Amino acid sequence: MGDDEDARVKCASQIAAASSEWGFFQIVNHGVNPDLIKQLRKEQIELFKTPFSRKSSCGLLNNSYRWGSPSATTPDNFSWSEAFHIPLIKISDQSCYGEFTSLREVLIGYAAAMQKLAKLLAEVLIKNLGQKLGDFEETIKCDETTCFLRLNRYPACPLSAEIFGLVPHTDSDFLTILNQDEVGGLQLIKDSKWVAVKPNKDALIVNIGDLFQAWSNNLYKSVEHKVMANPNVERFSVAYFLCPSYESLIKSCKQPSLYTNFTFAEYRAKVQEDARLFGRKFGLSRFLRS
């Protein structure tokens, strides 16, 4: 984000404005080594080449392999994708990697870079709310014991151009940092219309999660987004999720608050209950004050 103070102030203002208007923004000059990103993509592709029977049963990456939407009952609920959703605290564990020993060093470096960048972005957004990062961190714990990396693969889908690679959703975290390839397919809602996010090989994509929307009392927007499957080409991405501890209390920083106070554990439980009972997430609307 640069060292010049005027440039930093301008950049911080643009981040806050985009978080309020779009809930999404792209950042360049982010400080993450491009060679590290390239190496991770290479390792990621090799990992997903592993036969399904091994990926789904051998304990790779903390046994975190996921595919599709096994509980889906209609095409609207199905995601044409596979992923490893890994707690950061497990990334250094050698027992998680099997023969993929070179992946471990790359993931350790990438996770550290994401943690550093996420803290910088959170500080910008917290300061814009008139708070200090230290005060925020006293209430909210976000570290390697609470955050996640998700390695995604979206196979080419010959069935229909309308199939989702990832169904429409909002993220249940504070913010997400996405490194995507140049295939495209990510879309977000703006003014009730779907807008495609054009890939930029030099940029990382950041989006606001539900928790920052609640914390900011709706100043920042957690917007619905999706990935459309590609009929001809597979797509890869890596997402980092800035999540708090389950006991962290989420409360709006402005009064009167639009939301009741809730812990992250309570939020996760309600999201999972709604998904089980209704097949979809209702999210923050469950915690609006009446």
TrEMBL record:
Any GO molecular function: metal ion binding
PROSITE patterns xref list: FE2OG_OXY (PS51471)
Keywords noted in UniProt: Iron, Metal-binding, Oxidoreductase
InterPro entries: DIOX_N, IPNS-like_FE2OG_OXY, IPNS-like_sf, Iron_ascorbate_oxido_reductase, Oxoglu/Fe-dep_dioxygenase_dom
Record carries keyword Iron: yes
Domain Fe2OG dioxygenase: 143-244
Recorded superkingdom: Eukaryota
Any Gene Ontology biological process: response to molecule of fungal origin
The UniProt record lists the keyword Ubl conjugation: no
Similarity field: Belongs to the iron/ascorbate-dependent oxidoreductase family.
Protein name (database record): Fe2OG dioxygenase domain-containing protein
